[in-house]
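Q: How would the structure tokens look for this protein?
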Amino acid sequence: MTDSGGRRHAWWRVLRESVQGADTELWPEGLTEVVPAGFERVYVLFVDLYPEQQLQLQLLYGASQRAFERRTRVSARVTVVRVLGNALSDPRLGDPKPNEHLTEYLDQEIADLRGRLAQDSATAVSRGLNIGLAMGSAASLALLAVPLLWGADLLGALGVMLSCTNRWSLLGAFVCGGVGAFGAVLSVLVRLRGSADQLARRQTNGREGIVVPGQMARSMRHEGVYRVFVGWILALAVYFLLSGGIVTVFEPPATPAQICAAGGPASAAAGTELWGFWCAIGFVAGFNERWAFGILSRDSTRRPGKSS
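A: Here is the predicted structure in token form.
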């Protein structure tokens, strides 16, 4: 029996380590397993007199073993055990009817535990989203730097020669897309401020205990990366529509052809205006997805001066 129990413990330890990000208990305990020795009959009495509080403590004890942060897992489990021990050792438990003061004590402790676990879920959401945004931002920096630093050399090695206007057009696209990615990051951070609990409720569909906080963290990490790349794609789409003249909403201060034809200080000034313009367009497209989708859904045949 000892060897069998040791093998089972080793199996669960290996399984726990093989699951990515699984810091929760894969073999959770029940509330009956932490009843102090010699209090088994008292616990049966507690269940009869306070069935609702016992059920809530049982649920909270299970939720505490699935908490996101290790400190929360330890403290919440200790709190449940302490509350249960206080209730079982309370002399008012021997009353024929539930005592209102003991009931109030249990309800207050249960409410405190619920708040602590809800904050743990909000922490899982915000931390996962922040990590996802950081990963997406790092990837966007790479996407912005690699084409600018090595793209021209690679095209040259392939025998592709870029004209002055081609280079300015590509630079405008990468600048617009890169700034759009950071606009998306800022948009998510602004929405995240003070609303992590709302995101947690959205992930659980308004019901507690459906999604493990660790799973919420991974889900929000993926969403953070997704939002950054959505900002990239939207900004690039808006850039190509506006620069190609397919949609005429804004008039760029200069075109690549004008910059290449100007030469000298005039070319530098026009290039600065062009970069500033596309940085602003890319940022707004990444920050305000609704505005970007509005640009993309415009009728391409519409022109200024024509009635809509």
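Residues 7-22, 203-210, 300-308 have pLDDT under 50 and may be disordered.

The two ends are 82 Å apart (CA to CA).

Upvote if useful.
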